[in-house]
Amino acid sequence: MIKNITIGDLTIDCTNACRARDFYAALTGWEKTIAFGCLALKAYNGMILLFAEPDDIPYVPPVWPEECGMQQKQMHFNFQVDDLSAAVEEALRLGASKSTAQFGVDHYVTMLDLEGHPFCLCRK
């Protein structure tokens, strides 16, 4: 075990860093910034989300739900919300789409951001 380890930042690969950052800034209210030469968001707890456009190869969005032989998601966010239906409506208004595959019943809704990354809005 590594003592005193924390997550300092997370990097999100995307085709359009500005569009991706603006979406998550509008969704979360987190502060827009630049970190390590990347467009970024600073969460209320200090964690940084970096938005990176690949240099040499085109970004390929993940397929959700996963399909054999297709680009898999590597991670996704679970955002805790007080009002699940209001949060879904706001995410849709901001340009997200609701995944056709839903597994959370009444507990969470799987959404896709503007770059195709799945994320979940979860009832607290």
Automatic annotation (TrEMBL):
It comes from the Bacteria. InterPro entries: Glyas_Bleomycin-R_OHBP_Dase, Glyoxalase_6. Signal peptide: none annotated. SUPFAM superfamilies: Glyoxalase/Bleomycin resistance protein/Dihydroxybiphenyl dioxygenase (SSF54593). Residues 10-122 form the Glyoxalase-like domain. This is Glyoxalase-like domain-containing protein. It comes from [Clostridium] fimetarium.
